[in-house]
User: Which sequence fits this backbone?
């Protein structure tokens, strides 16, 4: 039976049409440029602040040396594991330097350099990777969340913190870092969605380094780019050359400023490459060829910046040596302090499970105490 | 002397009142979850909070449990005290990653530098005729995670007192709300709310000499009824309401079992790998010489929670408790 056939319906049935559908947000300005944004080697480079570039350079060189030193420490058994960010230093450093002191950083396990560039003691930053049970630093003191191992789970934390800060009237921005693989996790989606709906002052930085352990990006996503994902949430997406420290700093700086003035979140994809294996425990030759790695070595973030600085006469042999020397001093200090045997107090294991120890934990602590005392007597 | 008007109130109202009082006292307390605002939650437990405190304090979130708890982590990192509502027991599972990997251990891994005062309210358990995924008892999962407190009230008074304590706690608390008790009436005055109940103390709901029923949450009224029924058969049963599963009040429980010499653990979650196994083991380890019989368990069957039309066969009722009590007439070799 059609509407017309309904008894008496032909004249009476006058449905109000539903309101015309239109998109809630014009997607055009949210779309990333398909070409990653670059500064170094382009005309835009002329307008960059020499002091900033020099600072970025010093941090890049220090960061590279840190990666090399930390990897060496794994070989000596001083670090349990180290996920090197060699090749990605521009993302790490530029991200950290785009923040003000009152802002917060939410790093993943690979982002030790960002934490160090933000001023964290290099040894403290390695506490968890060394195999200790705690972060080694007080997150509140440095406004750096604990390095996060479960993928993408730090992203909603960043959103919640930024949201809370805004509710309190503080102009604090949270920067959350994640890898390309992490963008497939549910928490990535939930965090971006919450951030956009709440207009939370968050910047999401995806370091697309080509692989999630061994899985290439093509098997991770069918999206045109990871930055394109932003449009679906109603936030701008930006694509940037992750090896171009000046470009990363500029794009992050804009996103941070936008978030700070209430403009809401941004998703930034930095296209970069992981030169080393996933961690010291990984064999990268099983999933990629040396030719590919060589292409990226030629696009090294330190060389790119060095070329820019020397061509503009801002850096000479002496300057290069000075940066290398400063990095060497840092590495020697790191080596020395990491080579000192860590002193761990087993009784601490019971200290911070709850604000007040439960009677169950008190009993277990007493048991361990007795075992330790007995060991001491035996020695 | 004036007598305060004593109005009957429901557990749902007591919980709502607890949140309202906590929010009024401390601007850091924020409520968030699915439908907690205009609707007041699907069980109306957050009724009126958005209106009274604004949507910034009582927030309808997007529909994403990991997102709700994950953003609550960040909010707590910035000094707020989030109270999150998980709409139903089985819909809290998407948030387990956040709960276990972050909420439960943030204090520990930051050496006390970053405690997370988050209350996770989870309506749980069966008996309301819910379709699948609406009746799970997930307490064993929570109990198995160090760093979480796990509490569950059985009375209107405790609902208020324990929720106040949970919100005030500097540690994360999984607050399990027995949904079939949401509307059970009891004498309780909303004008003179009960005291904040410290977390970690069991209470003897009924004293007795011949055996102890150890129970919590939705099974407490069942045990009380069983105790009354058993009295007719000459059993004088003591009923211990745990109130807090973590921390566990060994002292109260064991003092009771030492007095009575016999114990039955009663809960509606599954028996295998369930809370009862842990409780029975603890009691046995601590009270072995006082026991006249093995510690027995009365639990739900080890099956996925059954459909509403069959759930009465699954839920441990008075008869099953009484059967277990009869089996406490234990003789060696039997
Ligand atoms: C939830 C979760 N699943 C799996 C892992 C194991 N895992 C560690 S790193 C990694 C790959 C991550 O790749 P990506 O997000 O691209 O970051 P990258 O390591 O390249 O920086 C995996 C699968 C994990 N840490 N967390």
Assistant:
């Amino acid at each position: 039976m059609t509407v017309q056939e309904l008894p008496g319906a032909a004249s009476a049935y006058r449905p109000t049409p539903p309101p015309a559908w239109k998109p809630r947000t014009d997607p055009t300005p949210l779309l990333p440029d398909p070409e990653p944004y670059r500064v170094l080697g382009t005309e835009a480079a002329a307008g960059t602040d020499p002091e900033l570039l020099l600072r970025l350079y010093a941090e890049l060189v220090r960061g590279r040396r840190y990666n090399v030193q930390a990897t060496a420490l794994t070989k000596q058994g001083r670090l349990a594991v180290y996920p090197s960010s060699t090749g990605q230093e521009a993302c790490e450093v530029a991200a950290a330097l785009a923040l003000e002191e009152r802002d917060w950083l939410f790093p993943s396990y690979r982002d030790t350099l960002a934490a160090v560039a933000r001023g964290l003691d290099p040894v403290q930053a390695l506490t968890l990777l060394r195999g200790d049970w705690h972060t080694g630093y007080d997150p509140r003191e440095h406004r750096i969340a604990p390095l996060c191992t479960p993928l993408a789970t730090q992203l909603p934390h960043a959103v919640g913190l930024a949201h809370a800060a805004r509710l309190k009237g503080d102009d604090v921005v949270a920067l959350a870092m994640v890898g390309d693989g992490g963008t497939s996790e549910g928490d990535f989606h939930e965090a971006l969605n919450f951030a956009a709906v709440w207009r939370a002052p968050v910047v999401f930085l995806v370091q697309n380094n080509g692989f999630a352990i061994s899985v290439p990006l093509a098997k991770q996503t069918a999206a045109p780019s990871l930055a394109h994902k932003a449009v679906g949430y109603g936030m701008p997406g930006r694509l940037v050359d992750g090896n171009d420290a000046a470009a990363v700093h500029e794009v992050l700086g804009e996103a941070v400023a936008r978030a700070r003035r209430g403009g809401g979140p941004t998703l930034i994809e930095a296209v970069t490459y992981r030169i080393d294996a996933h961690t010291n425990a990984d064999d990268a030759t099983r999933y990629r060829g040396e030719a590919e790695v060589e292409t990226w070595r030629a696009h090294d973030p330190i060389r790119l910046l060095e070329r820019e600085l020397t061509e503009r006469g801002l850096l000479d042999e002496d300057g290069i040596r000075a940066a290398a020397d400063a990095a060497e001093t840092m590495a020697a200090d790191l080596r020395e302090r990491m080579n000192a045997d860590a002193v761990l107090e087993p009784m601490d294991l019971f200290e911070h499970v709850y604000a007040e120890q439960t009677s169950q934990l008190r009993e277990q602590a007493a048991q361990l105490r007795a075992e330790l005392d007995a060991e001491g007597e035996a020695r | 002397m004036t007598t305060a008007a004593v109005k009957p109130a429901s557990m749902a109202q007591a919980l709502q009142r607890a949140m309202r009082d906590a929010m009024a006292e401390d601007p850091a307390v924020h409520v968030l979850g699915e439908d907690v605002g205009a609707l007041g939650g699907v069980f109306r437990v957050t009724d009126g909070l958005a209106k009274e405190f604004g949507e910034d304090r009582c927030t309808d979130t997007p529909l994403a449990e990991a997102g709700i708890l994950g953003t609550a982590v960040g909010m707590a990192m910035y000094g707020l005290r989030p109270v999150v509502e998980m709409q139903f027991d089985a819909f809290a599972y998407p948030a387990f990653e956040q709960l276990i990997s972050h909420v439960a251990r943030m204090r520990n891994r930051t050496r006390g530098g970053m405690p997370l005062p988050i209350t996770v309210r989870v309506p749980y358990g069966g008996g309301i005729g819910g379709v699948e995924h609406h009746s799970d008892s997930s307490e064993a999962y929570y109990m198995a995670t160090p760093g979480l407190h796990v509490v569950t009230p059985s009375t209107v008074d405790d609902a208020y007192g324990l929720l106040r304590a949970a919100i005030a706690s500097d540690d994360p608390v999984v607050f399990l709300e027995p949904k079939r008790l949401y509307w059970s009436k009891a004498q309780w005055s909303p004008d003179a709310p009960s005291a904040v109940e410290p977390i970690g103390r069991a209470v003897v709901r009924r004293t007795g000499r011949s055996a102890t029923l150890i129970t919590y949450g939705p099974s407490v009224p069942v045990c009380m009824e069983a105790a009354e029924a058993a009295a007719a058969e000459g059993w004088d049963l003591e009923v211990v309401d745990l109130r807090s599963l973590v921390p566990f009040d060994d002292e109260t429980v064991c003092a009771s079992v030492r007095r009575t010499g016999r114990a039955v653990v009663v809960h509606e979650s599954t028996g295998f790998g369930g809370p009862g196994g842990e409780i029975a083991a603890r009691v046995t380890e601590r009270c072995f010489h006082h026991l006249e019989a093995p510690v027995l368990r009365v639990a739900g069957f080890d099956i996925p929670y059954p459909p509403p039309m069959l759930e009465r066969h699954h839920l441990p009722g008075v008869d099953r408790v009484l059967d277990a009590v009869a089996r406490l007439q234990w003789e060696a070799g039997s």
Observations:
- Chain B touches chain A through 47 residues (CB under 8 Å).
- The pocket of thiamine diphosphate is lined by residues A 110, 149-151, 179-182, 209, 211-213, 274, 278 (CB under 6 Å).
- Residues 1-5 of chain B have pLDDT under 50 and may be disordered.
- Residues 7-188 of chain B form a domain with the Rossmann fold fold (CATH 3.40.50.970).
